[in-house]
Amino acid sequence: MADSHDSTVSEQRIVVGLGELLWDELPGGRRLGGAPANFALMATQLGDRGIVASRVGADDSGGEARHLLSKRGLDTSYVQSDEAQPTGTVQVRLDVGGQPDYVITESVAWDYLEWTPQWEELASQADAVCFGTLAQRANVSLETIRRFLRTTRANCLRTFDVNLRQSFYSADILAESLDLATVVKLNHEELPRVAGMLGLGGRGENAWAHRLIQVFDLEMVCVTRGANGSLLITPTDLIESPGLKVNVADTIGAGDAFTAALVHCYLRQTPLEKIGEVANQLGAWVATQAGAMPVIDDQVLTRLICSPEN
User: Fold this and answer.
1) Is it the case that residue 6 has pLDDT exceeding 70?
2) pLDDT of 14 over the 90 cut
3) How many whole angstroms separate alpha carbon 13 and alpha carbon 95?
4) How many angstroms separate the CA atoms of 174 and 27, rounded?
5) Residue 9 within a domain
6) Cα atoms found within 13 Å of the Cα of residue 234, Cβ hemisphere only
7) 267-308: per-residue pLDDT in tens?
């Protein structure tokens, strides 16, 4: 299990959220979001150096996004500025259970992620990077994301958080992303769609996960099941973690928090069962909060410490 990451448990790691940074336009007002940004913020709150590698417009919304991230302790020096395209937005509708439906604005700043010497240096230093399908919808960002991933060190934990949105994905994007990944995380609805698009064969979560591991030489497949917990599968182990009953405010960002905890613990060679437990706890807690970027209080954090010993 990622035994190349053998430094001390307490050491802060460089953890990059690569892709979209945007404003979620919710019924109750707008909140900053985007899966990579949500992930990076949670990684920072867990004790790592979370970095957002994205792009915003040279507009008021972009300036506000930078200010908010800085205020929350994130390094924004890798958030690029676009003079031509606006900061991204998403119209979000919530159903009665707090499940979101998204309408994502096209041709925005994060569709034009630029490969720069600064990003090349970041890629070479990263201990972990999390990326998804959405930011690969435009060719410019797709090529930049792939170049970033190919520039990382061999022992960098490259987590592909699938996040299928609208029609912004394809079999080619899925296959190429899986080829570049170390770990893949997807939900129980996405897994059969991915398996079908890639022609994996087999039937059921366990079979599909093992096929992903075999075909794409992955270290782990993580399947989130919402209120029903999660499934972590490696070439040699399988752990099912039960869900937690909580009062859901909305589920925006819950999956990203799960991924942040997964990465934080995996980098520290935490036992698989503990990884599932901690990731479920953080994801469930975020679902009880409004928006994707709640502040984790100390009481919650004390339950989320990962190390090889526990």
Assistant:
1) no
2) yes
3) 37
4) 32
5) no
6) 13
7) 999 999 999 988 888 888 777 776 656 677 766 666 665 544
Distances (CA, A) of 111 to 92, 162, 198, 310: 19, 17, 25, 41
Helix %, strand %, coil % for the chain, to 5?
Answer: 40, 20, 40
Write out the residue range of the structural domain in which residue 177 sits: 14-301
Q: For 166-185, give the DSSP string.
A: TT---HHHHHHHHHH-SEEE
Vertex 245: Cα angle to 131 and 296 (nearest 5): 55
Question: 256: domain CATH number?
Answer: 3.40.1190.20
Token representation of residue 214 = 């075999």
Does residue 8 lie in a domain region?
no
**Residue 163 Rama label (left phi>0; alpha psi -120 to 50; beta):** left
Could you report the per-residue pLDDT of 147-199, keeping only the tens digit for each?
Answer: 999 999 999 999 999 988 877 889 999 999 999 999 999 999 999 999 999 99
**265 pLDDT more than 80:** yes
Q: How do strand 183-187 and strand 157-161 relate by DSSP bridges? A: parallel
pTM: 0.88
Alpha-carbon gap, residue 105 to 195, rounded angstroms = 28
Q: How many domains does the chain have?
A: 1
- Within a domain: 217: yes
Residues 6+ apart with CB under 8 A from 199: none
Whether 1 maps to a domain, the answer reads no
